[in-house]
């Protein structure tokens, strides 16, 4: 496997476009997107269809921000309460007030979810509608910029952004460079290991059905960062009925030909700090690769198939990274053996 790092310096406050699930409330937009999805005929033109989908979404006017709606609803609630205070006998206004209260709770929930996505925070207090917590998490997450923090150890002068980017590229090119292995030693180590049968291999690369894709999509988590195409897991959930046949076609063409859509080979790599101090050292940053969600759905399907094979050929004493096994079981086994040895020693 080889990686090519391409540096593209963005404006300081730029952000990559991502699909907003709230846009799907626009029925006309939804119809145009679904029509575009239905036109997918092969894996080779899938990337072009994704570009068209992105263009369609961007062309539609974005709905007003939740903050604006909340402000307007608050104003209406205040006005309605003033009228009720002056004329308590107008019963119909109480119904209006209940409706406005319901609407503002919906908008507050949407606003909290919005800041939850932006702050990358998984926890949300039950019943808590304030966005203060999420905004604080968002500011904290964005308070450190790798470009501003990382320093070149060999340089005695103030580095500009281009020099720092080149330094980052060189370091990670070195880290992810291809390692030479001793083929003879590798064969000796793996010689007596259990092997996958031809039946298992056929199952691994067998036809991917619509049912398999649907099951995978339904289990996808929300509020996850997408890849460069900006299409989130929510997009695939909302378009499931229409996009599953397209994904079935794409995934099976990839298995048959071994040729992936070009967008699957381009990831967005971001750096996040491992800790809050010594951020000038590149070793205190962790690279995270944001992969396009369609590629991740494909990989999840293959990984699920591989797990069923691993359950059969990987010995029971190996617990890590195998479905239905817990590495804590191995730790408990070790503790049990140690305690038994200790008890036997005491008895003797």
Description:
- With 348 residues, this protein is mostly helical.
- The protein has helices at 27-38, 46-59, 66-86, 92-119, 132-142, 146-149, 161-175, 183-190, 198-204, 210-218, 233-238, 240-257, 293-313, 327-347; strands spanning 268-273, 285-290.
- The chain is built from 14 helices and two strands; from the N terminus they run H-H-H-H-H-H-H-H-H-H-H-H-E-E-H-H.
- A two-stranded antiparallel ribbon has the order 1-2.
- The longest helix has 28 residues, at 92-119.
- The chain is extended.
- It starts with 26 loop residues before the first helix and ends with a helix.
**Strands in their spatial order, largest beta sheet:** 1-2
Q: How far apart, in Å, are the first and last alpha carbons?
A: 56 Å
Number of helices: 14
Largest sheet features = 2 strands, antiparallel
Structural shape: extended
The overall pLDDT average reads: 83
The number of E-state strands comes to 2
Over all CA atoms, what is the radius of gyration? 27 Å
Category from helices, strands and their pairing: mainly alpha
What is the element string, with H for helices and E for strands? HHHHHHHHHHHHEEHH
Q: Detail the poorly predicted runs.
A: 9-14, 121-129
Roughly how much helix do the residues carry, as a percent range?
A: 55-70%
Strand content: under 5%
